[in-house]
# Entry
Amino acid sequence: MNQAPSQTARPRTYRLAELGLLILAIAVATSAYALVGLGVEDTIPANVYGYAAWLAALGVILHIIVWIKAKYADPVLVPIAVLLNGLGLAMIYRVDLGRDEYLGSAMTQLVWMSLGVGLAIVVIFVVRDHRWLRRYTYVSGFAALVFLLLPLIPGIGKTINGARIWIGVGPLSFQPGEIAKILLAIFFAGYLVTYKDQLVAAGPKILGIRFPRLRDFGPIVVAWVASVGVLVFERDLGTSLLFFGLFVAMLYVATSKVSWIILGLGFFSAGAVAATFLFSHVGQRVSGWLNALTAEEYNKSPGGSYQLVQGLFGMSNGGLIGTGFGEGRPNMVPYAESDFIYASFGEEIGLAGLFVILLCYLFIFQRGIRTAQQLRDGFGTLLATGLSFTIALQVFVVVGGVTRLIPLTGLTTPFLAQGGSSLIANWMIIALLLRISDNARRPVEEFHTGVLTITEDPEPVPAGAPAAEVDSADAEGAVPAQGTAASARTVDEDAPTTNLPPADSREFDGEAPTTNLPPADDRALKRGGTPNDTDPTDQRPTGGER
# Structure
């Protein structure tokens, strides 16, 4: 006997588990901050209690908001984000202490973290259902384009270290491409869930692999041209790789066709090789990667491989377990607090510590992909995958560049590196993943977003009831008309389908259950019989003969 949805067992919220992990993350981050002071100045920093209280307040406030507004959200995302952010603050403080002039960069980064957590809370309040974002598919695409073009506008665009990816207003600067990657993930998810049927159409088969039709190459060509445009006009290899990789990954998830991966790698490889010979800034990155240990490349200025080689030497000095917080020399590496913060960690916490950091990122990616698998709507699946892949690809590009697996790109390590733009964007990604995971695990009867409407089944009319009572019950919906549902449950095409009643008691978008069979009376008439008659050739006993 099926139970009513309201009587089914609800999934656990795991909010107390999240609180326990959050306390552990704050304790680890505060200990790292204190160890930096002990290692550099032989004393615990005087502001360690204020730092710990500020970090704890941000984490606990976000935890309470999640408990109230998204109680079924994933319990691992917030503690891991706080842990990575706290470790990054400790390392930024460490690099700052090694300078000739103390800049207070850690406190500035803590202010950016506060702004990022605040915007994450706003996202949780505003986005009550991730499917609401699908309405703004093309608005998100247009807004992303505007954000990408802002650095090219004279007067507000700024060129830093050869890349024109910043906008500046007075003393403040911001990287709009970090917000654009979120908007592009929304746009790609909405576009691909709408047109995926055309993109999976069969095409020619080459070397045993089925490729798409030639006329379906439009989206990937447009994405490739856009990424090359970022590379050419903004001179930013990392952002170009991130945007194109995001689109190809979401395209593969939407279509399940390996051929799109092959085409994407082919397009980007061709563009990268051409850019190496056509654009000097790309050629310098590739030359510094291939010839990093040569004296000529090491001593070249500007450009060269000095930064890369010093980072490798620092990680080598750290060995397996590192020199300890405050005991290394990360300041010998240019931009040790931002682009090369991963190498700074490698020197002071060693290879073992680097694996722990990578494991934290792997957990974020795994929880995002798991959320995508739990969702029942295509848009949410693609959006969760795209947001998770954005963080994973960015980590791969940064770590691959620092370890000389691929050329340096200029991207920053999520949550760890100094920089307000990246930190704000990544906290917004965490907020969206929290909302999506909450919707993935939330029981259907608890949806109050306006997308899903649920009413209780009416009480059955007793047999032999007076006609007036039957008419009254029929007026209230107790006796549905033919082809309608017994329950007034209406489900949006993207709504979760867990805990739904049997198919014959549902109504989708006001349509009757999909069947092509005529009513039973019509079928009897078509066979030449009369309504409610059986087939005349049927010799089985009927009625009282049974």
